[in-house]
Amino acid sequence: MLIKTIFSGFGGQGVLSTGQTLAKAALQEGKFVTFLPSYGAEVRGGTANCTVTISDEEIASPIASEPEFVVALNQPSFFRFQNLLQSGGFLLYNSSLVEASNIRGDIETLGVPITELAANIGNVKVANMVMLGSFIRISNLISFDRLIKNLPEILGAEKARLLNINKQAFQLGFDYVKEHLKCL
Amino acid sequence: MKKVFSRPKSLRKVSMHYCPGCGHSIIHRLIAELLDELKLRDKTICVPPAGCAVLAYYYLDIDMVEAPHGRATAVATGIKRVHPKNLVFSYQGDGDLAAIGTSEALHAANRGEQITVIFVNNAVYGMTGGQMAPTTLAGQKTTTSPFGRDPKIEGPPIRVCELLATLHNTSYLERVAVNSPAHIKKTKNALRKAFEHQKKNTGFSLVEILSPCPTNWRMDPLQSCKWIDEVMVKEFPLGVLKEVKC
Amino acid sequence: MNKQLMYGTHAIGEAAIQAGCTCYFGYPITPQNELPEYMSRRLTEVPGGVFIQAESELASINMVLGASVAGARAMTSSSSPGISLKQEGISFLAGMELPAVIVNIVRGGPGLGNIAPAQSDYFQATRGGGHGDYRIVVLAPASVQELADMTFAAFDLADEYRVPVMVMGDGMLGQLMEPVVMPVRKKKKLPEKDYILTGAKRRPARLVKSLILDTKAMEDHNWKLMRKYRRIEQNETRWESFLLDDAEMVVIAYGTAARIARGAINRLRREDESIRVGLIRPITLWPFPTDVLKKASQKIKDFFVFEMSAGQMVEDVRLALDGSGTIHFYGRPGGVVPTPAELARSIARHYYQSQRKQKK
């Protein structure tokens, strides 16, 4: 198994921390993992993206030229990274911000209204973690239960106070997919 | 009989390679006398320059490390930060400090590195054969300004002490000369003060010494000493430019 | 110690601290800024720790020189254009026989180039880089773990031989996050630093210099350095091989290129069981594993060099093989990182062609 995912969006949407949380969770499960952020001039102008690779064997290239998954939190990345997806890949997008149009015919998609969902639990800042919850349900790359169990370690002492809200956010995203994508 | 004059212990017993009338030998001796008097010989680390005085390490009997041309203040910074209790000084010429090493000198001064710079200004590149230096006077002929330095094209001479005096973390800046016994005495006092400032960690100290270079000035030694008094000090006035409380 | 997910630049910094580095001097340049940023915080926790953001690359390498001659473990880091500026100081360090660790997170060039990962500084690194007859040890890590391990090892190597040691990564490795186990310092017997400057207390004054005006003495010094470099070649040449036993073609690649090559070879062997391709990966770029290649050439006739440059290490391969075997080359300069699939296609093409030729 070797799966690559691109997380993308505006700077400040928590794109990098979403990818890092996934990478740390995969590391906790003993998987091979790489996390590669975009950097320098590429990220000027407010967009951010990162690639997380999770594998059962050593990872040759941490760069995703044809990722299995794309998670797009804003409109520009919805278009830009959709084209990179391999045929049969999955595009998960933030339907609170993204107007889904001109979607490729050979990929699967799901929009999650993460801002609204996060607002329901009173903190829009965890919208990205709602998305991660959805992603885990769709990708099946890591175990949801183990993520929840390992969360204190993953978040670290600095973010210990955000433990509960993050758990809620994951659950919300996870359940949303269960309800809206019956085929899974 | 009472001995009133002898070779300082910090000065090695070798003859120097400097030209007749050159100021370097006097300055070396003053440094050696001071290190003896202040009992600092075994605490001192010196960074000599690229230029005529590169061979200072054959004359001064102290720990020394050569620096690339212009980088003496950066090297001295590295040493002093590792050994904050040692006396660390660089010895630099006008090309070394005010041309190729301006950036290093300016920023070491601005950081207030606790080092002393002994800046020997003789208005020419000596070692390489008398080319125009950043401190060459307006109208002064050198091998690369054969018709005299034209300030409109080549810029006027740079006054290093005045430049550094604007920086907050410089603690002691004085311009002196070694062209007469009285001036030599003042030079020694200036160096002493600079070392004392370093000892008390007041900031970056620099002593600019106007020094004769008869060979490249195409003068005899006496004319050179006179030229400093009559011409050079008009551009580079002597005196203390800055002194913070010690 | 636990495995933790770390950025390449941070792994370098922490490994340096663990190796006893107390002095860092640098100047900002992408893609390695996270290293000085890390050191600016971390060195405040280290006794005697010194961090200076210098005014230039020239100043920072010369501050390293000063700290090194004062006896501290000192380092600097930069990326390609900045490393060019440091060459003056590196030449002086080599001439004066002073230890130092220099990290180069290589980006595309020449000139300002770009900030993408590249391997185009190979010539500069392995030929010394500055003026004069000298070499520096060049380590080429291929993962974040190796960035840590090799930075850690670089300090011992530098002290043992009194040479500058370069850790050469690239923009991708520097920015990459991977699991790392930090190396821990053990007592290692290293030569006493009997050359450092501390003030001539109860000993004769010391002098550290590179100016040797007497030609005979300069020649002696040059030969002395060369003898040291021969010793390094004998003792410190490092490489690794992969699936070499049955190989009929061997890919030669280092750093990021080597890990992509590994992926390509795995892919090829999975797709076609008859394809016999292996890998030799130089870990030290200088000293270059010449003997390993020479020995391989007794059995293997096809050598496929892959570099993220227009072709630099390929010259060392040519020198090592000295006419035996055929050299194939695939290069992607300019900051392009090809995929394992792309590389596999190129390897396969050359492999099948040369198999056909041999049958004829």
If you had to describe this structure to a student in words, what would you say it looks like?
A six-stranded mixed sheet of chain A has the order 2-3-1-4-5-6, sandwiched between helices. The model of chain A has no long low-confidence stretch (mean pLDDT 92). Chain A has six helices and six strands. In chain A, helix 2 (75-82) links the parallel strand 4 (69-72) and strand 5. Chain A has helices at 15-28, 75-82, 114-120, 127-139, 144-155, 163-180; strands at residues 2-10, 32-37, 47-55, 69-72, 90-94, 108-112. Chain A has 184 residues and is an alpha/beta fold. Chain A has a single domain (2-180), classed as Pyruvate-ferredoxin oxidoreductase, PFOR, domain III (Pyruvate-ferredoxin Oxidoreductase, domain 3, 3-Layer(aba) Sandwich), CATH 3.40.920. Chain A is globular, with a radius of gyration of 15 Å. Chain B has one domain: Thiamin diphosphate (ThDP)-binding fold, Pyr/PP domains (Rossmann fold), CATH 3.40.50.970. Chain B contains nine helices and nine strands. In chain B, the strands form two sheets. Chain B has a seven-stranded mixed sheet with strand order 2-1-3-4-8-7-9, sandwiched between helices. A two-stranded antiparallel ribbon of chain B has the order 5-6. In chain B, helix 1 crosses helix 7 and helix 3 (94-100) crosses helix 4. The mean pLDDT of chain B is 97. In chain C, the strands form three sheets. Chain C has a seven-stranded mixed sheet with strand order 3-2-4-5-7-6-13, with helices on both faces. Chain C is an alpha/beta fold. The termini of chain C are far apart. Chain C is globular and about 75 Å long. The longest helix of chain C is centred in the middle third of the chain and has 22 residues, at 215-236. Chain C has two domains: 4-192 and 210-236, Thiamin diphosphate (ThDP)-binding fold, Pyr/PP domains (Rossmann fold, 3-Layer(aba) Sandwich), CATH 3.40.50; 239-359, Rossmann fold. In chain C, helix 1 (8-18) runs parallel beside helix 6, helix 3 runs parallel beside helix 4 (80-96) and helix 10 crosses helix 11. Chain C contains twelve helices and 15 strands. Chain B binds chain C through residues 41-45, 47, 54, 57, 60-68, 70-71, 74-83, 86-87, 103-104, 106-107, 111, and chain C through 22-23, 25, 48, 50, 52, 54-56, 58-60, 62-72, 74, 88-89, 92, 96, 197-202, 205-211. Strand 2 of chain B pairs parallel with strand 9 of chain C.
